[in-house]
Design brief:
Chain A: It is a multi-pass membrane protein. Chain A: It is found in: Cell membrane. Chain A: Belongs to the binding-protein-dependent transport system permease family. Chain A: Keywords: Cell membrane, Membrane, Plasmid, Transmembrane, Transmembrane helix, Transport. Chain A: It comes from Rhizobium grahamii. The complex is a heterodimer. By secondary structure, chain A is mainly α. Chain A has one domain: Orthogonal Bundle (MetI-like fold), CATH 1.10.3720. Chain A is globular and about 75 Å long. The model of chain A has no long low-confidence stretch (mean pLDDT 87). The longest helix of chain B is centred in the N-terminal third of the chain and has 36 residues. The model of chain B has no long low-confidence stretch (mean pLDDT 86). Chain B contains twelve helices and no strands. Chain B has two domains: 56 residues; 231 residues, MetI-like fold (Orthogonal Bundle), CATH 1.10.3720. By secondary structure, chain B is mainly α. The relative contact order of chain B is 0.13. The two termini of chain B are 35 Å apart. Classes of the chains: A mainly alpha, B mainly alpha. Chains A and B meet through helix 1, helix 4, helix 5, helix 6 and helix 9 of A and helix 1, helix 3, helix 4, helix 5 and helix 7 of B.
Chain lengths: 295, 303
């Protein structure tokens, strides 16, 4: 389509007003991402001899990753964290909330406000709230609650560290799942359910045969969004456990931070970062493709 | 035919009860941790665990601002996050308009590219970002120091890239930009072009069209983009942790985190009061953003 002179000038002006955003994204996202790849091939460090004169070391950092038990541990912990909190926990509780809130019951707004609340809490505050719930052995709030039901109190963050950060992250993300799945549910026409009821379908049949299949695109989109955002979780877990005890909650994000800013191994930390970037990019491409289908 | 049989009615009541029960349980799970912050902050002898205060007091809040650096942390947070939010609104307002109105070939690739940018985990970017900002900071210092001498230091505090407000504002804004650009693009897509075209007929330039016609119309979209940017930037802990080290520049999440690290002498009442002060703007912003939140996510689902 040929544009006339006037239109071409407008297009140029439009590009011009997009330019500042483009510049910031290039400088503070694209360049660091590429620089991360470069760093991962060097022995760059924050202090010591390597800080003054970093050398190119080829794929040595990546070779080291293969034999690094702590790295594999971080990958495994992150995988369990994502599956446990986002794929299962937030999804199930979010779906249950969304379906319950569809009914014409009282206090709907109050319920949904309360469920949205954890999402508003800043990471560090959320971390401290849960330390108050979990830490302190017999004194801990949770210990006092469960001992009422006859469960032995424990130092929850020490005994079940991974389970605890999964529960805290479920708590934080029910809202996102609920909102997305509510939007998905609202696209299913109610006539289908009425027709199924006429044919004598039970609620569980309707859920399996109508709700789930028709929700599949939304569920897929949710899974991608939540997996990507859960991989990025840092502050919440860092405030709770700082990766401990003994690496039990050392997510990839925390491992990158510890390698780079505690052990000062920037080059090696960058190699871990590149792995994290690649995993997120693969999920992200799936996310973009899912969006493309929808847009 | 809408004849409801008695058994169907009973069924309905039963599943309504089920809905109440599940929603109540989930709500309790969501709400209980908040009680600690609220109660401990008003407790004269607060503990780490949740308890009903024996003596109610506002002393913790008063101490945050008088004995501790609470006021300074609050100012730093408001300044940095406020600055980033305003920057995001301006850039996304302009950029979103461009993305909505342009018919150039790069439009769709660009929109999908910024979706991908949103996906990159910040922890994987902070090391190179830190090095890059350090380089910029050293370059800036090398220019400012010979010119301003000892006054270069206070100037760098405001305009520095590491351990200065400017660097943190720019990076915080950049992280919020992709979502804000999408929100504004979608928003402008929904605005009729009639007004702009009328203004164009009258011979208005692009700048005039933006100022007189588009900004007033775009305010709801800008409010949404601003609220989202504010909420995420306000809650962010990683970027200030890495980019700020001077005590006088600390923001609320850092002050809170450091206050908690003073093992054996943690003042839980003070900590809770500080946490509540930090929590409040986030909850208020969230309350306002709720409406947009549902729309945005729903938009993501429906396209």
């Amino acid at each position: 389509m040929a544009l006339n002179v006037h239109e071409r000038r407008t297009e140029r002006q439009l590009l011009l007003i997009l330019l500042p955003s483009l510049a910031l994204l290039l400088a503070f996202v694209i360049y660091p991402a590429l620089y991360s790849v470069y760093l991962s091939f060097t022995n760059e460090a924050l202090t010591g001899a390597a800080a003054l004169r970093p050398r190119f070391v080829g794929i040595r950092n990546y070779a080291r990753l293969l034999n690094d038990a702590k790295f594999w541990n971080a990958l495994l912990v992150t995988f369990l964290f994502v599956v446990g909190s986002a794929v299962i926990g937030q999804f199930v509780l979010g779906l249950v909330s969304a379906m319950a809130l569809r009914r014409r019951i009282h206090f709907r707004r109050l319920f949904s406000s309360i469920i949205l609340l954890p999402n508003a809490a800043p990471e560090v505050v959320a971390g401290f709230m849960w330390i108050s719930m979990l830490a302190g052995g017999e004194q801990a709030t949770l210990s006092r609650i469960v001992s009422f039901f006859g469960v032995t109190p424990a130092d929850w963050l020490q005994v079940f560290p991974l389970s605890m950060i999964i529960i805290v992250n479920i708590w934080r993300g029910i809202a996102t799942a609920m909102i997305l799945l509510t939007a998905g549910l609202s696209t299913i026409p109610t006539e289908i359910y009425e027709a199924a009821r006429m044919d004598g379908a039970t609620p569980s049949q309707m859920f399996r045969r109508i709700t789930l299949p028709l929700m599949m695109p939304t569920i897929l989109l949710y899974m991608l969004i939540s997996a990507v955002s859960t991989i990025a979780v840092f502050g919440l877990v860092y405030a709770l456990t700082r990766g401990g005890p003994g690496g039990a909650t050392e997510l990839v994000s925390i491992y990158i931070y510890n390698q780079s800013f505690t052990a000062f191994q920037l080059g090696y930390g960058a190699a871990v970062a590149v792995v994290a970037l690649l995993i997120s990019l693969v999920l992200g491409i799936g996310y973009v493709r899912a969006m493309k289908v929808e847009v | 035919m809408t004849v409801i049989s008695p058994s169907e009615n009973a069924n309905k009541t039963r599943s309504d009860l089920l809905a109440y029960a599940t929603l109540s349980l989930i709500s309790i799970f969501c709400a209980v941790p908040f009680f600690w912050v609220l109660l401990a902050s008003l407790d004269g002898n607060a503990q780490l665990f949740l308890r009903w205060p024996e003596q109610w007091t506002l002393a913790n809040y008063i101490r945050v601002f008088t004995k501790e650096d609470g006021a300074k942390w609050l100012f730093n947070s408001l300044f940095v996050v406020g600055g980033a939010t305003v920057l995001v609104m301006v850039l996304a307002g302009l950029g979103g308009y461009a993305l909505s109105r342009t018919r150039a070939w790069w439009k769709l690739p660009f929109l999908y590219a910024i979706l991908l940018i949103r996906v990159l985990p910040p922890t994987a970017l902070v090391v190179p970002l830190y090095k890059f900002l350090l380089t910029l900071n050293n370059a800036e210092g090398a220019i400012l120091r010979p010119i301003f001498g000892e006054y270069a230091r206070p100037i760098m505090r405001w305009t520095g890239f590491i351990d200065g407000y400017l660097g943190l504002i720019l990076v915080l804004a950049t992280m919020q930009l992709p979502l804000a650009l999408w929100i504004m693009k979608t928003f402008f897509d929904g605005l009729p072009r009639d007004y702009e075209e009328a203004a164009l007929m009258d011979g208005a330039t692009l700048v005039q069209r933006i100022r007189r016609v588009l900004i007033p119309l775009a305010l709801p979209g800008l409010a949404a983009a601003g609220l989202f940017a504010f909420m995420s930037a306000w809650g962010d802990f990683l970027l200030p942790l890495i980019f700020l080290s001077s005590p006088e520049l600390q923001t609320l999440p850092l002050g809170l985190f450091r206050a908690f690290l003073r093992i054996n002498e943690i003042d839980y009442g003070l900590l809770a009061a500080l946490a509540f002060i930090y929590l409040l703007p986030a909850v208020v912003a969230f309350g306002f953003a709720r409406r947009f939140l549902v729309q945005t996510f729903a938009g993501g689902v429906k396209g």
